[in-house]
Write a structure and sequence with these properties.
The chain is α+β, with helices and mostly antiparallel strands. The chain has 4 helices and 6 strands, in the order βααβββββαα.
Length: about 150
Amino acid sequence: MHNAPPVTYPVGRSRFQAGAQAALWLLGAATVAGWCWQVDVWGWRQGVAALAVVGAGLLAIFGWWKTPAAALRWDGQQWFWNSKDVACAVHVSVHLDLQHYLLLCLRPGAGRPLWCWAERASQPAHWRSLRRAVYSPARPPNDTPSALGSEP
């Protein structure tokens, strides 16, 4: 069985993520605007809905802006997250595959999971290698024929 080749791929702020969040925010804003336009008198409910839409937009912008730029590295056996501040081993799982975009969940040994988008446009020459690696099962370190056939 062949394993995926080693690859290092940049991840971080995604234009696709920004566009998807903007589209969802615009849909929500249009829905609230339509509701406010249909009522005769604005009440507290419309005010809360408008504040919620503005707050959601600000949180989305803040979250996108704070997304760290990093490199995701597969060495053939394990994944590593390397950013300016942190370098650690992670477990990678694909949660959404849109062929040119991958939504990845990175789980370090301790701490919260990190969600990031990988885009083909970031490094088109290595996109296929990244896709092979994220779908490749991690190989145990002692994956040699002599170790597999020996008795404990």
